[in-house]
Amino acid sequence: MKELLSDAHARAVRYLDSIASRSVEPDDAAVAKLLELDTPLPENPVAPELVLAHLDEIGSPATIANAGPRYFGFVTGGALPVSLAANWLAGAWDQNAHFVVGSPTAAALENVALHWIRDILELPESWGGGFVTGTTMGNFSGLAAGRHKLLADAGWDVEANGLFGAPEIQVVVGAEAHTTLLQALALVGFGRERVIQVPVDDQGRMRADALPELAGPSIVCLQAGNVNSGSFDPIEEIALRAHEHGAWVHLDGAFGLWAKASPAHAHLAEGIAEVDSIATDLHKWVNVPYDAGLALYRNPDMARNALSITAAYLPTGEERQPCDYTPESSRRARGVETWAALASMGRSGIAELVERNCRYATRFADGLRDAGFEILNDVVLNQVLVSFGDTARTQEVIAAVQKEGTCWCSGTTWKGRAAMRISVSSWATTEADVEKSLTAITKIAD
Ligand SMILES: *Cc1c(COP(=O)(O)O)cnc(C)c1O
Hints:
By secondary structure, this protein is an alpha/beta fold.
């Protein structure tokens, strides 16, 4: 065990040591070599050290350098050194974080992390939460809690009887809702398309003046951080109005929610305490390893009623049982890395991380604008949309940037136009990385 883990450690350190100097996108030869993994199942055991060596030799070169400093695709964040180290230790612990009896440590660390997150987000202590795989499941969990509350109020036990024959629930989303919010709506039985879409403004923000009349049981889904522009729906205004009509308000705050950690950006997330449920990612801006997301609930009992496997046959204890607030039972102790990241960064550290990433996004926008390219969004947070001309040309530049390997940015469509999207969300990115990437992008585009 000891030698194997030392070997894994040495390989991981070597990998991370070289990541800033290699191409962000793996080269074609490394990807082609993945075919060598495609062998028949070994008939007999293979020495663990050989398995690890094979994994490193074939797997490592074909990775995307997401852990490096110049990956700007998909708002992924990185993994802080302390969160990776905590992940290794927690891997050794091999805890099952379902019940307190399954892991007192995991439950205690989740409780503390939740407490700190409420503090950062300025949410009352009465809010509860569950550690899920990501915002997709956070959205699912929040919507399931809302479904429970609205239908219980209408005299319908949805957990027992399902949705066939249930009173109808009106679902309202912004026209720019994230695709995974629609996926979550499909999973809870509301349907991706059986929704009222509210028009958005030029930055993708839901227009409060276009909110439909909320008649009968309704769920309103808001967004903190548009995945393209980084813009925020008018959360407080719409939440307060929706509550006048008894609606449940759910907020998708996958990365944008963490604007609240930065005094300079907190105004964007104003009013989050007015909503009923929030989904956010920890593996994005909190910079912990996958898979880590959080569902937050104003009234944790609604989540417990909707999601708990124990409520039906175990008495309610004083202790928070982790699995009562997620759709899962057995799972890894994913709260550990978040506890470690927040314990290490503290209040000022997370504020500084958010502010630094946002400053770099502004620098990207300024640099590209100065080079003659068009920035398509108001850069209010960490997201930058740039056009290099028409669709074909922009797509050509994006492909060339990815291939060249200095940095990696996503392609997207914004208001019908092709755009390159730069998402700055990793602790590892430095000012020098931004300048190096700017130079590479402008050179390629020119
Ligand atoms: C990333 C993202 C999601 C989905 O989160 P996962 O962690 O991939 O499940 C949802 N909404 C927004 C706005 C996002 O950026």
